[in-house]
Structures are given as C-alpha cells and as structure tokens.
Specification:
Blueprint (H helix, E strand, L loop, with lengths): L4 H16 L18 H15 L3 H13 L32 H14 L6 H15 L19 H7 L7 H9 L5 H8 L6 E3 H10 L6 H8 L13 E3 L11 H7 L6 H4 L8 H9 L1 H15 L21
Antiparallel strand pairs: 1-2
Helix pairs in contact: 2-4, 2-5, 3-5, 4-5, 8-14, 9-10, 11-13, 13-14
Length: 322
C-alpha cells in the first residue's frame, strides 16, 4: 500500500504521541461542541444577568481575565482561595480589595455543572465571561478559543511582580507585555478596557495633586473632590476611569488621554510624547480600529500558557482544587 505524505505525517505524529504518552490538544472554538453544546449559552445568560444587576461588573470580569492570564497563564489560578498550601493571588497587592467578580464566575460554573458535570473549566468560563461582558456593554465580541484546564496552584509572588502597576512608566509597561507575547499595540488596545470601570483614590492621588502640566487642571480639580490629599483618607473612594461614558465600551478613553484626562499615570503615559502616541491618536479617531485590535489582543492574551491535554484539572468549584 502506498502511504501518502499526509498519512505518513499522521502516523509519525501518532508514534510521537505514544512515546510521550500524551497528545496535547490545541485550543479551539468548538471544544465543547459535543461534550457540552449548551455551555456558551449558559455562561452568556449568567454573565448578562450579573451585569444587568451591576453594570460595573463588565469591567471587573474583563480585568479578572487579564489578571489571571498574566500570572502563570490563563489557568484560573486567580480564582483559588487561600489555603494552607495555596498562596492566593487574590491577596496580591494588585488584586487585594480591587479584583472582583469571583462569585459571578462561580455562579456561571454552577449553572454549567448542572448540565455538564466536570466538563467545562473555570479558565474557559473566565475567558468566555470577558468576551460576553464586553459585548453586553457595547464593546466588541470575538470567537473564544477553549480547551484550557484549571491550575492546581497559584502564586501571590508572581502576581505581585508580574502584573502591571498604576505607577509603571511606558518602557516598563511595554516590557511587561512583551514578556507575555504581547506587543505595544496589543498593550495600548488592552489598556482601552479602562474605558470601563473605576479606580480607588490611592491609585491616582499622586497624579491629581502633583502631576502639574501632565494633567488637565479642571480634570484634576474634579477628581480631588472625592480623593483628599492626606494619605489613608478616602483611599478606597472610587472614581470612574472615564468620566464621559463610564459604563459603555467606546473609544472615549483615548480621547481623554489626548486631553490629559487619563486617571491613572499608567494610562496617561500612553500619550506623553512616547512611542505609543500614534496608536492612541489612531484609536481616538477610529473606534472601529480600536474595537478590532482590542478583540484581537484579547484572543492573543487568552493564548498565554494555557494548561491543555491532561495538565491541571477541571475544578468542580472554581475557588478550590478538587
């Protein structure tokens, strides 16, 4: 029998897989098509219900996926609670008292478990939730690739060292994203998620009181009303990242930067005479370009070091290992 090159390649692949005892699957949009065909609809319904109840939750879910993927990859490690053997990422400085939405992901997981027990990972639910959150508040949608499995570990140390900081300069931000396989354009597009959500006073106090010519005076004055100068006074008070349309996904974030009205220093640094100015300008003029690039960057981010094949596990509940 004549063996074609395609058949030969398949045969060699099979032998290779047998030798290493595992064939690692790739992420695919059809991963649950047969094993749990109603998974996506179930997740979508759950996420929409949560955001309808609290509009701010859309920003929180997008941020939660981001903070998960930047630490150990997109493995739902951020959802693990503290135990004697797990140093929860929830207690890391970038997450403590600010990352939220854990209960929303668990609620979606509970609903999915009822129809397909032990099939859909928390990591995939988190990725789908971010997409559904964006779409619900007027942002772009995208095809989510699935097949991730859940981590059995977490790392508070990595969360403290690898997540971007509101104090980061431009070079530092670009470097952080580059280590995750994301370029400067991806970084600016993903930063555009700050068209939604709120920040705590302590994260922008220095900017509104000491940033001088790098911040619009009227904007700074407005923000000072709920963020007193004295440290520890009103630290947790919230302010919208985008004063204009704080609950809708649009490109006003970039228009704000051009007007020196970025709330965080790490926002404004994207338009401060550096290499990303042109990208900010483009997105401020062209909302379609921003939406397309944001969706592409979210897909790219979702590919960061996923656990696949037989690595990790499918957690029964998202906050604890099986």
């Amino acid at each position: 029998m004549r063996i074609t090159s395609k058949a030969s390649a398949a045969f060699m692949c099979m032998l290779f897989c047998l030798n290493i005892a595992i064939c690692q699957a790739q992420l695919t949009s059809t991963f649950y098509e047969k094993s749990c065909p109603n998974a996506l609809n179930t997740i979508r319904t759950s996420i929409r219900t949560a955001i309808a109840r609290e509009r701010r939750m859309a920003a929180s879910l997008i941020r939660l996926h981001f903070h998960d993927c930047f630490v150990q990859g997109c493995d739902a490690s951020i959802l693990l609670d503290e135990t004697s053997s797990i140093d929860s990422e929830q207690n890391a400085l970038p997450n403590k008292d600010s990352a939220r939405g854990y209960n929303v992901i668990q609620s979606a997981k509970t609903r999915v478990e009822k129809i397909c027990p032990g099939v859909v990972s928390c990591a995939d639910i988190l990725a789908v939730a971010a997409r559904d959150a964006s779409a619900y508040v007027g942002g772009p949608s995208w095809t989510v690739k699935m097949g991730r499995r859940d981590s059995t570990t977490a790392s508070r140390n990595l969360a403290n060292s690898e997540l971007p900081s509101f104090k980061d300069g431009l070079d530092r931000l670009i470097s952080r994203f580059k280590t995750k396989g994301l370029n400067a354009r991806d970084m600016v597009a993903l930063s555009g998620a700050h068209t939604l959500g709120q920040a705590q006073c302590f994260t922008f106090r220095d900017r509104i009181y000491t940033n001088g010519s790098r911040i619009d005076a009227g904007f700074a004055s407005t923000r000072r009303r709920r963020c007193p100068l004295a440290a520890n006074n009103g630290d947790a008070n919230l302010a919208a990242l985008d004063l204009v349309t704080p609950n809708s996904f649009d490109n006003n974030y970039f228009k704000n930067l051009i007007q020196k009205k970025g709330l965080l220093e790490s926002d404004q640094i994207l338009f401060s005479g550096g290499s990303t100015d042109s990208i900010v300008s483009e997105y401020s003029r062209n909302p379609k370009s921003f939406s397309v690039d944001f969706a592409a960057a979210m897909i790219k981010m979702g590919d960061i070091k996923p656990l696949i094949g037989t690595a990790g596990q499918i957690r029964r509940i998202c906050s604890a290992v099986n």
